[in-house]
Amino acid sequence: MTEDSAQPGSGAQPPERDLADIPAVEVITRAAVMLMSAAAEKLGLSSDDPEDSPHRDLDEARRLITALAGLVTASAEYLGPHAGPVRDGLKTLQLAFRESSAAPEEPGKGPGEKFTGPVW
Length: 120
What we know:
This protein is mostly helical and 120 residues long. It has helices at 24-42, 58-75, 83-100, 113-116. It has one domain (23-47, 54-100, 108-120).
């Protein structure tokens, strides 16, 4: 059996897809999900107490959220039915960042808000 002929239940990985064969919307959505997941980790959201998370790093979270906002804003027209959930996830992270900050910025000045506009 070759690597490309993985059988169900055999524990083998499914065959890798050539990047050229993956539709743009899937690449963009995967990138957005990765940025969201990383930002959530940096906000400490995977911990019971985010403030005590060993992964909490608001400077890193700001960068990730801003990158996500730029990606979402630039690609919203291509995301089709994925646009709404991705925007909702972004907004949730922006609000979580504001809540996590010792000195929250005013709406319109938070991470990614130069791309999305103020988040309330």
